[in-house]
């Protein structure tokens, strides 16, 4: 399945076949007042079983979760099963889940931070999907500049693109007493664009000159923006 978020307040869902081709038309669109979508730039299926679809809403400051219905063809409920709200999520512009689905990160464009929430035990939620209500961690590194997208690596390090800076940032993770902990400052910063080209765009809008979307697959990072197209990087993680 493929989900595409639309800023107008809708999510289009496409069905793929075994050869990797997707239907020309969406099999479903989630839209309307009951969907509670507003300026939804980021969308993702919730791992590991993809039984829910999550979207962040920049203007509402929320992440909405839609439950997959037990029928064929695939359909999702058009009313959110759960809305995650927290004061740390100021204009969330992107979201990402760890591979196991235990961790959810939001890129908070409005206050230059990243909020990380832990998935709650179903024993405590009556079998319902829930994250929060409080963040397990908040990264407020001064080097974050209008975070746009986030992605977890296989070892749960966190990569953040900065729409207002010419680099993406990596925050290392380590095991704490009860939960994972993330570094307060970037362990690595990688410049992605020609500095002159970045300055030219950023001079017109200081929230839009840097990299935007980011994704990880295995040991590859993909970063994109209108200014750079798509760039691929390889990385190697060391056990800690």
Explain how this protein is built:
The protein has 240 residues and is mostly beta strands. It has a domain of 149 residues: YVTN repeat-like/Quinoprotein amine dehydrogenase (Methylamine Dehydrogenase, Chain H, 7 Propeller). The strands form 6 sheets. A 4-stranded antiparallel β-sheet has the order 4-5-6-7, with no helix packed on it. It is globular.
Reconstruct the topology from this structure.
Elements: E1 2-6, E2 10-14, E3 28-31, E4 42-45, E5 52-57, E6 62-67, E7 82-85, E8 92-97, E9 103-108, E10 113-118, H1 122-125, E11 137-139, E12 147-152, E13 158-162, E14 167-171, E15 173-175, E16 180-182, E17 188-191, H2 195-204, E18 213-217, E19 220-225, E20 229-234
Antiparallel strand pairs: 1-2, 2-3, 4-5, 5-6, 6-7, 8-9, 9-10, 10-11, 12-13, 13-14, 14-17, 15-16, 18-19, 19-20
């Amino acid at each position: 399945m493929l989900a595409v978020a639309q800023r107008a307040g809708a999510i289009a869902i496409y069905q793929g076949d075994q050869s990797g081709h997707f239907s020309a038309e969406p099999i479903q669109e989630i839209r309307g007042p009951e969907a509670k979508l507003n300026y939804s730039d980021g969308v993702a299926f919730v791992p590991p079983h993809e039984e829910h679809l999550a979207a962040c809403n920049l203007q509402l400051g929320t992440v909405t979760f839609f439950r997959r219905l037990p029928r064929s063809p695939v359909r999702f409920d058009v009313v959110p099963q759960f809305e995650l709200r927290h004061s740390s999520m100021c204009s969330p512009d992107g979201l990402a889940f760890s591979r196991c689905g235990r961790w959810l990160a939001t890129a908070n464009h409005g206050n230059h931070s990243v909020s990380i929430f832990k998935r709650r035990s179903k024993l405590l939620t009556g079998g319902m999907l829930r994250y929060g209500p409080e963040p397990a961690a908040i990264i407020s590194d001064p080097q974050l500049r209008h975070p746009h997208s986030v992605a977890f690596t296989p070892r749960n390090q966190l990569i953040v693109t900065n729409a207002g800076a010419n680099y993406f940032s990596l925050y290392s993770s380590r095991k704490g007493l009860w939960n994972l902990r993330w570094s307060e400052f970037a362990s690595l910063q990688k410049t992605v664009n020609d500095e002159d080209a970045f300055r030219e765009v950023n001079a017109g809008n200081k929230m839009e000159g840097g990299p935007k979307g980011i994704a990880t697959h295995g040991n590859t990072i993909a970063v994109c923006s209108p200014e750079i197209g798509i760039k691929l990087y390889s990385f190697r993680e060391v056990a800690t």
